[in-house]
Amino acid sequence: MREDKLYHYAVIRLVPKVEREEFFNVGLILFSKEEKYIRLKYHLCTQKFDLMCGDLEYEEVISSLETFKHIAEGNINYKPISLMDIPERFRWLTAVRSTIIQTSPTHAGKTDDLDKTFDRLFEEVVV
Length: 127
Prior knowledge:
Distance between the termini: 33 Å
Number of strands: 5
Number of helices: 4
Strand content: 25-35%
Largest sheet: 5 strands, antiparallel
Helix content: 25-40%
Structural class: alpha+beta
């Protein structure tokens, strides 16, 4: 018998000019409390970046996205936040902020395969 697992996810956005509120999707974070699962992946398209982000440094944005990824993965070098439990890290990563890296509101769903669902959502909203 298949058992669906509850998950929550948010889309990671790059907001080149915060005051204009324009953005494009660059990543996804998904977590399931009951499965102790968290996964974050990003893809920063260089062509979109060049078109929309003339004032930003590509490597600095990548560095910020890598920090998000390390925190999600619980990398000890990014403590104290990375040492929080998975739901707290997810809440911290998806907290409302007014920086160039932001997340969408969180969404919930159910699935019997978290990785497959993550991959499908990533393809739909990021790539």
